[in-house]
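The data are set out underneath:

___
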Amino acid sequence: MKERWLTGINNLKRDIKEAPKPWIAAAMIILFVVFRWGKKILGLDSLGITTDYPAVPGMAVMMLVLSVIALAVIFWYVLRAKEFRLDKMYLRCGLLLGALYLFILPPLCAPDEWVHYVTAYKVSNQILGVEPLDEQGEVMVQEEEMQANDGAFPDAEQYQYFWTHYFGKETGDELVASGKGPNGYYMLPYLPQAIGITVARIFNLNFATRILFGRICNLIWAVVAISLAIRWMPFGKKILFCVGMLPMTLHELASNSYDAWIIAFSMMFIAYCMKLAYEKATVDRSDIAILAVLIALLAPCKVVYAPLIGLCLLIPKEKFGDTKRWVISATIVLGAVMVIMLLLNGRILGSYVTEDTSEHIIGWAGEPGYTISYFLEHPMEYPKIIWNTLTIGDMGLPKNYLQDMLGRVLGWLDQNLKMPQIYYTALVLLTLGHFISVDGEVKVFRRWNKLWMTVLVAAIFLLVLTSMLLSHTPISQAHVHGVQGRYFLPILPLMALVIFKDVGLVVKKDRQKLLSAAFAVFHVLLMAQLFGQVITVHLAG
């Protein structure tokens, strides 16, 4: 044992000695800042004026410790890895920094998290052999769940409640109607969360722990999936790494939302298409099966992303062997998507075709909504509404979509979770730095390749607006209601490839480590800033 410790110490000395001096200096500066000003950054000074939330200072200290551990592990890999790989870097960053998001952004503060949690609970009921729904179609949950606050904004009270209830025991096992039905008919995106919830239920753990376990399982599987996508990507790996590291992405991954499923599978599909189109010499049966499975698991979750299947056209026919095999392969992939979408989404799509708008009621507004039949009768209304949305609608400007997509404001667009301008500027610079090609990468795109990807991006963008127009916009509104920038995260890698790949702008290869490590530092500082903002605003109020 003593020899192993001595060997480890000697290896550490060697790694530090061989590490570039700027990295050592950066690590020392970060540690100094954390320990010197960590208390002030995390808002612990202001917490001294109240005894109403005694658990919050302890939580803040634990988050400080977790931040130091996360940076230590990440910088250790950056310093000593003989072969630096972004997929392995993302595994570390995604899991460790995602853990910060789990706690700093407490349960139910993510968009629609209560609906997603209840739907995952339905899947958990099915796993355990319990009746999932009542006679009215509402999901059956344990009674403690009914105390949850749908759409909660994080504050000291939330921190106090969850921090003191994590890993507590369930006080009763009676199931009651939740008042909510499941979110759609496609339940696979909720399987990771349901597994976590089920484990907590088996060990008779309480609501706070059940929703935490659902979040943890969602985060773990999604980070592993995105890491796999980065490994598959033959070029532009930094783009996928960056999209996976955006605050909004980590926020969704560290929640019970099925957005984690959508983001992960869209990245995997994009990466595998690029691998087949520009790296692999031939396309075999296993490749066709992988493409069919990936798009079949993604598209039914949100039909608007189905046009991603068009990326398959980037794969040269010659790689299939002959035209017959190409046609058979295309039929298999397209057929898998169409059959599953019709089975799972046919009823919802059918409601949009109804002739009478009074039959299609928008739930939140209690008013009739737009239908396809309406626009067939009034063809000029559709482009007018889309134009209004892009210019004067709520959240309509593309600038706002971009800010929401990057994560300028987290939670339910909670202004307490809005990052200061200096953080947003740093985020934009880090994003641009990752989107620029690495020096030495071979140019792969022809003009028609980029043109086709632009068409796919535009189609998905328009479908997102159209879906929200039909599903969420009352007929009294002249613009699309409820569009959020996070809906465009699945196509952000494509947008970055079209705009930045092969345009002559490059970043030196040895700067990859600097950029990825800087992203990790950014997230630690951002979480500390947002935690301090939430506590300060709560106490001031």
Notes: The mean pLDDT is 82.
